[in-house]
Design goal:
The complex is a heterodimer. Chain A is an alpha/beta fold. Helix content of chain A is 29%, strand content 32%. Chain A has two domains: 88 residues, Beta Barrel (Elongation Factor Tu (Ef-tu), domain 3), CATH 2.40.30; 157 residues, 3-Layer(aba) Sandwich (Rossmann fold), CATH 3.40.50. Chain A has nine helices and 17 strands. The longest helix of chain A is centred in the middle third of the chain and has 13 residues. Chain B is globular and about 70 Å long. The model of chain B has no long low-confidence stretch (mean pLDDT 94). In chain B, the strands form four sheets. A five-stranded parallel sheet of chain B has the order 3-2-1-4-15. A five-stranded parallel sheet of chain B has the order 6-13-7-8-9. Chain B has a three-stranded antiparallel sheet with strand order 10-11-12, with no helix packed on it. The chains are: A alpha/beta, B alpha/beta.
């Protein structure tokens, strides 16, 4: 059981939790995720570790209330315990001195992007971060990102904050303006698909972190399989980060809908 | 140490054994017919995932069946048992009505008798080596049924006997993974006096016994009971812990762990790499069974969903394929079909499982192999295209090889397809160990006599070494590894 030591609402549907997990805090690296379960009949939910504090023995998770299971998690309060939590899982992000990194984060995808931006900045890179949200109220972690970015560009769908437009428009502006050596994009699958198309056009190496369906998260079930460069890969053990230009995003978008009917039913319960 | 065959001989000469042998003439023993296992009615049992198919023997049936055993001078049955259970001794205890003593005998050798009594392929092991099978061409003594009977009797009696353990030697060892090989290892090491911790990545202890084998074949409550027995003996269990990730091997060594047994299993499901295999509605048997067995997705109060098909195809002919196809029937499928590229004779599944599947109305499309999955408008699988096969010459395994019949291709309608064509070793744990010698198949290389890997303090067994085998072979590895790790540590620490 892992105790929640702090809960904070970041936007209407997005919550930040600081959770006791001393071993995971110590061993996790940027890009790693945990799988957790709320309640004895709870689903196993994969979530990227946003940050950790080794001294306090805590990790930070950010979750959006999008369904029955994430809803149960979001309803937990400070002092409550998480039934089960395991990690760190997945391959860590390859952090290196790239030169200029263009980081794109959309919606709640900004959360898993944060530890990567932080690590690339600490590795001595110039980091330009483009964040996108539907509107001002849904934008998260802006200040945290500013701390580890040389520049932060905010895009909103409705123009309520930053510039009006899509994340790819903000990113293309940067690419046209200066030499970008490496890109990373995390957000909804459809956003990553278009981000990948954009950077492919400019031939900039790009990583994405995939949020496929998972059950065990240790390579056992294969629910998370994704086609990369014509080969089937397991997101949980081969990823979650892959070369964006090699991913079959249409297949991935389809697979994310595998349990849509079942999930709709669960939400009505 | 006294030779095991000497011990067997001495025990056979015990007064009670001699008396029992003389109580009935061998002629009368061999005249008895092998007992038939009572089974739940097929139409009833397919209504529930948890209704156990085999109902077990009554005390009278068990004693009668035990009396068929002739208590051979050379009990060849034991040679067929990967954990070398003293079979005649426990069987004779049953014949004599001493059921708790029978259970205690099993526990001397096996950490999981109620499990083995249910899922071991006895027909290929102890029962294949039984005098009846070997010399008389008759049905073997039903050793498996008797094992289950003794274990169940003890559990239901409430008089649980915790096996004796040696004085604690305070040497810490770890088992990685909590499936049959690790549990068997842990059971022996705790008896030797070690401080044993079993680390499990999932939120439940039991490995494949929990996530893989369905409850109609092996109820989870029975696995939990055997685990409780190990706990009583002093074994520690740590769930939600991936050794190498949550903490490194080095971290654990700093905490005092002196040696490790890796029994992390063959977790990685194989696929056929054919077009359409990543469509929605096509999944591994691991995923399907895990959702149901571990996550209880078939129950309305579970948060985990599972796809229910009206017409379900399961690809493969092993026990896992049978488990998956029979589960689909219990989840309401109208048609549940096994698709297997060879014929019934070559199926690796236990005959009992095939028979149970047939009784439950499972259809068998043998000599057919999927070559493509086709989708409906929503992107979910709607058809599987099959290549018809015929049997050719025997291959390396001795089974006749399936050969393509050119141009003979059929399509069948399905809305769920489950791929159960085997598993590969899970790379998660070995990947964390530099210098560990691996085979080209991704299995850990060990000395077959000692189960010791290329790193002296690391031993391994079960599917991570074998690639894919049975519960009992994994348990045999666990026992063997415990014995040799004990020797290794005795030498190292002058225990």
């Amino acid at each position: 059981m892992n105790k929640i030591v702090e809960k904070q609402r970041l936007s209407e549907l997005v919550f930040k939790f600081i959770i006791e997990a001393p071993l995971i805090a110590k061993s996790r690296k940027p890009g790693n995720f945990v799988i957790l379960r709320v309640g004895e009949k709870g689903e196993r939910i994969p979530l990227t570790i946003v940050d950790s504090d080794i001294e306090k023995g805590t990790i930070t998770l950010i979750v959006q209330n999008v369904g029955a299971s994430s809803g149960k998690f979001c309803n937990l309060e400070t002092g409550d315990s998480i039934t089960d939590m395991v990690g760190p899982l997945g391959k860590a992000t390859h952090i290196f001195k790239a030169g200029t990194l263009l980081a794109m984060g959309g919606g709640v995808g900004i959360a898993p992007l944060y530890p990567i931006v932080k690590a690339f900045k600490q590795a001595g890179n110039r980091v330009i971060t483009v964040l996108a949200a539907r509107n001002k109220d849904l934008l998260i972690l802006e200040n945290e990102m500013r701390e580890y970015s040389d520049e932060v560009i905010v895009m909103t769908d409705d123009g309520s904050y930053g510039q009006k437009g899509l994340i790819t428009e903000g990113a293309e502006m940067v690419i046209k303006r200066e030499k970008v050596n490496e890109c990373i994009a995390i957000g909804p699958a459809i956003m990553m698909k278009f981000a990948a198309q954009l950077t492919k056009k400019y031939e900039i190496p790009t990583q994405v972190s995939l949020n496929t369906i998972m059950v065990d998260g240790t390579g056992m079930c294969g629910a998370c399989r994704v086609t990369v460069n014509g080969e089937t890969k397991f997101t949980c053990v081969d990823g979650p980060e892959f070369n964006a230009h090699q991913i079959d995003f249409d297949e991935m978008l389809q697979r994310l809908r595998a349990y849509k009917n079942e999930e709709d039913l669960a939400r009505k319960k | 140490m006294t030779d095991y065959s000497e011990i067997l001989k001495q025990e056979r000469n015990a007064d009670w054994r001699v008396e029992l042998r003389n109580s009935l003439a061998n002629k009368e023993r061999v005249a008895l017919e092998r007992v038939k296992m009572t089974e739940a009615e097929p139409l009833e049992r397919i209504k529930s995932q948890t209704c156990e198919v085999n109902r077990g023997l009554t005390a009278d049936e068990a004693r009668r069946e035990a009396s068929r055993c002739m208590d051979c001078v050379t009990p060849t049955c034991i040679e067929g048992c990967p954990v070398s259970i003293n079979i005649p001794k426990f069987v004779k205890y049953i014949e004599g009505g001493k059921f708790l003593e029978a259970a205690a005998t099993l526990k001397e050798f096996s950490a999981l008798p109620a499990v083995c009594g249910r899922v071991c392929p006895q027909e290929k092991q102890c029962e294949a080596k039984c005098f009846y099978t070997q010399k008389m061409k008759k049905d073997a003594v039903a050793i498996g049924y008797l094992e289950r009977f003794a274990a169940d009797f003890e559990r239901n009696s409430g008089k649980i006997q915790v096996p004796k353990v040696e004085k604690r030697n305070r040497v810490k060892v770890a088992a990685i993974g909590s499936g049959p090989s690790s549990l068997s290892f842990a059971g022996d090491m705790i008896k030797f006096g070690y401080d044993v911790t079993v680390f499990e990545a999932l939120h439940e202890i039991g490995g494949v016994l929990k996530y893989g084998i369905p409850e109609f074949r092996l109820p989870n409550a029975i696995v939990d009971f055997e685990l409780e027995n190990l706990r009583q003996m002093g074994v520690n269990f740590e769930k939600n812990f991936v050794v190498g990730r949550t903490a490194s091997f080095e971290d654990l060594k700093e905490l005092g762990y002196q040696a490790f047994f890796i029994g992390s299993g063959a977790g990685l499901p194989n696929f056929m790499n054919i077009p359409g295999e990543n469509l929605n509605g096509v999944m591994s048997s691991n995923e399907y069974l895990t959702r149901v067995n571990l996550m209880y997705a078939n129950q309305s109060d579970s948060d985990t969903p599972v796809l229910r098909g009206k017409c379900v195809a399961v690809v493969g002919g092993g026990n896992t394929a049978m488990d998956a196809v029979r589960t689909s029937k219990r989840l309401g499928a109208e048609r549940s079909i096994i698709i297997y590229r060879r014929s019934r004779e070559e199926m690796p599944a236990r005959l009992e499982e095939i028979k149970h599947a047939e009784e439950e109305g499972i259809e068998f499309m043998n000599l057919a192999n999927p070559i493509e999955y086709l989708a409906n408008k929503e992107g979910r699988v709607s058809k599987v295209r099959l290549q018809r096969m015929k049997l050719g010459e025997p291959d390396a395994s001795g089974r006749r090889k399936p050969v393509v019949i050119e141009g003979d291709i059929v399509e069948i309608d399905v809305d769920l397809a489950i791929v159960a064509i085997g598993v590969s070793p899970n790379p998660l744990i070995p990947a964390c160990l530099k210098g560990l010698k691996m085979s080209k198949y991704g299995t850990i290389e060990v000395n077959e006599q000692t189960m010791q890997s290329s790193i002296p303090e690391i031993f391994a067994g079960g599917d991570i070494v074998r690639g894919g085998a049975t519960v009992i072979l994994a348990m045999g590895d666990g026992r063997k590894a415990a014995g040799s790790m004990h020797d290794f540590l005795k030498k190292k620490y002058n225990l």
